[in-house]
Amino acid sequence: MFAQIDTPSVIVDLDIAEANIAKFQDYCDSHGLKVRPHIKTHKLPDLAKLQISKGAIGITCQKVSEAEAMISEGGIEDVLITYNILGSKKTARLRALAETVKLSVVADNETVALGLNEAFKDAPSRLSVLVECNTGADRCGVATPEEASKLAAIINALPNLTFKGLMTYPPIGRAKSVNAWLEQANSLIKSRGIDVEVISSGGSPDMWVAHETPLATEYRIGTYVYNDRSLVMRGTCTWDDCALSVLATVVSVPAENRAVIDAGSKVLTSDLLGLNGHGHVLGRDDLTIDQLSEEHGRIVASGPINLTVGERVRIIPNHACVVSNMLDHVEMVRGTRYLGPKPVAARGCVW
Amino acid sequence: MFAQIDTPSVIVDLDIAEANIAKFQDYCDSHGLKVRPHIKTHKLPDLAKLQISKGAIGITCQKVSEAEAMISEGGIEDVLITYNILGSKKTARLRALAETVKLSVVADNETVALGLNEAFKDAPSRLSVLVECNTGADRCGVATPEEASKLAAIINALPNLTFKGLMTYPPIGRAKSVNAWLEQANSLIKSRGIDVEVISSGGSPDMWVAHETPLATEYRIGTYVYNDRSLVMRGTCTWDDCALSVLATVVSVPAENRAVIDAGSKVLTSDLLGLNGHGHVLGRDDLTIDQLSEEHGRIVASGPINLTVGERVRIIPNHACVVSNMLDHVEMVRGTRYLGPKPVAARGCVW
Fold it and tell me: What pTM was computed for the model?
């Protein structure tokens, strides 16, 4: 299959991606929740525009450079950057961005808010800022609803910023406690006479219980477009829902129960996401990719490996988002039909 | 420091890299061992040429596309590709390569040898092939000295190939048993009347005991040019010998004992190499980078974190080679002097 494609390559099945986009959009539509896809998974302007054409309100990026790459082709008009943006180089680029799209960002501390305010001095319009809230994932975010309220007031008082609402990347499986946290922050901020227009939650693992955070007005979601082994293992989707796979060739079968493929950590990455092994070989539940080096993936079996040198395998990686960051192109297909390579526009955009 | 450099960025200190190159070259010179650096660590033609100018006999690559990228600028004339190369697309490119440089490759099975032989039909000269030997690392390689001898005979009998010798990526810490394995294979092959010109071993972890495999004629080594946390932890080098670091900015200090930097797995990668944590914050032994997501690195401390939003940190990653594959450019420095960005010519070359 896909004889035209050299290995290792990252394959994206557009039929499956389109179905994934439609299914979650329908779910959110039925619950009155807006969808704001996170482009980190695909990094492709075409897919972002497809998500918007199916009903998404805009996109989510994490870095300014991702946003720049995504909007360069046009057709994307609303961008939320869910990251504390610091430093005059980045805030200057942010200000330029704000003149071309409807832009909002987040902050979880006053230093960031002051930097944004400084950069938007005399700008044509104020920058919208959401307060990032730590509702239990313990990454970024203000620690308590009280702190959220205080930071909202600080932002609201700055001349070049507008407080827009709350944003959280919630811990998995705790939608109800997240809702309670946001309820409290929302009340505290409103009691200051400040409007909370947007409450943004997200995450693919909990995508089908997004409605259990009814306070959220929008949902940021990335992996759902491709899905991956981590989401299959959680029961969020099935192997048939996985749009991204890695095509690899068996280059060595040096022992009865061991084989080596030409995809290593430079394609599959070392992300485990709590799983054992480095991906699922489609159609071969008996195999484990137990070790990666940069260019070698080692596959072991409890019995005979039944793979031959030169044979191709398709692998669903543990984590789709990081895999789409590894190569300059992905190979687009629909089922068994090869469409061609597509440059990964926002690959490597970490600034 | 390095105010001109935006974060996150990969910094390479040329002074340290040059010292690392010189030190290992001296060691090998004193033991009569040839050095064939593996370019996977730096992926930079300039550094490969520097390694050659200091005494290396040529370079090692793992993929055809890496070799193409490395020789594109000229100045590199001897390349060993330590990989089973399969498929007519790759072998055609290999044949083109062989017309521009002194080229050798490896094979650990007959299918690969036959494919190489087919591709070099009517070529101006035969392709040199080493037999890859599994001396205990259990990745690729023929399983026994007897199999090595058989495959050597097969290669030797093919009209378009020349059997050149043996190659192994040895298990760490077992130089003496590796030598015994190679001795046996060498004897068996010579008893067939076949010459064994090259015996190629390698690996940075055992670089200072390379002389304990006296049968080896050349040593392939990658990480030594930059070093990394994994090699410091093994006692192979010190923090001061680490030429590659990641410059990052603290973007959030959301709790007394927690901070977040703008370098996540898209820069540091998730490679653990058996270590806890995702890198060493220089000058801060009390800190642990305990969690990475794509754009966030979470740092925790047992006591107060003593980091402020906007502060910069330098991190020695667990594994230098994979980090140099993540961004299109590295930033070259000498001490505190900034030299400028350098494109990573062989980044993403997995074919």
Answer: 0.97
CA B263 – CA B244 distance, rounded (Å):
15
Q: What is the pLDDT of residues B285-335, one digit of tens each?
A: 999 999 999 999 999 999 999 999 999 999 999 999 999 999 999 999 999
What is the interface pTM, i.e. ipTM, of the complex? 0.97
Q: What pLDDT score was predicted for residue A300? A: 98
What's the average model confidence in pLDDT over B15-30?
98
Q: How many CB atoms lie within 10 A of CB A125?
A: 12
Tell me how far apart the alpha carbons of residues A20 and A29 are, in angstroms, rounded to a whole number.
Answer: 14
Subunit contact B294:A325, Cβ cutoff 8 A: yes
The dotted CATH code for A14-225 is 3.20.20.10
Q: Do B112 and A251 touch (CB under 8 A)?
A: yes
Q: Do A251 and B86 make contact, defined as CB atoms within 8 angstroms?
A: yes
Of A109, A266, A309, nearest to B111 by CB-CB distance is: A309
- Beta-carbon contacts of A31 under 8 Å, excluding residues fewer than 6 positions away, are A210, A211
Return the pLDDT at B175.
Answer: 85
pLDDT at residue A74 above 90? no
pLDDT at A253: 98
Nearest CB neighbour to B322, from listed A87, A294, A296: A294
pLDDT at B233: 98
Question: pLDDT exceeding 70 applies to what percent of chain A?
Answer: 100
Residue B244 · residue B324 · CB < 8 Å:
yes
For B319, the token pair is 């594994």
CB atoms within 10 A of CB B43: 24
Report the distance separating Cα A263 and Cα A325, nearest Å: 14
Reply yes or no on domain B230-343 having CATH 2.40.37.20. yes
- Chain-chain contact of A266 with B350 (C-beta, under 8 angstroms): yes
Contact present, A332 and A304 (Cβ < 8 Å): no
Q: Cβ A350–B263 below 8 Å, yes or no?
A: yes
Interchain CB distance below 8 Å, B8 and A350 = yes
Contact A6 B351 (CB under 8 A): yes
d(CA A14, CA A244): 9
What are the chain A neighbours of B82 within 8 Å (beta carbons)? none
Residues of A in contact with B253 (CB under 8 A): 109
Q: Which of B63, B254, B348 sits opposite A108 (nearest CB)?
A: B254
Report the gap between the CA of B9 and the closest CA in chain A (Å): 9
- The domain ranges of chain B are 14-225, 230-343
pLDDT at A201: 97
The predicted-structure confidence for A169-224, as pLDDT tens digits, reads as follows 999 999 889 999 999 999 999 999 999 999 999 999 999 999 999 999 999 999 99
Chain A residues within an 8 Å CB radius of B295: 40, 62-63, 83, 350
Looking at every residue in chain A, the average pLDDT score rounds to 97
Which residue does chain B place closest to A320, by CA atoms?
B294
Contacts B258 to A, Cβ<8 Å: 138
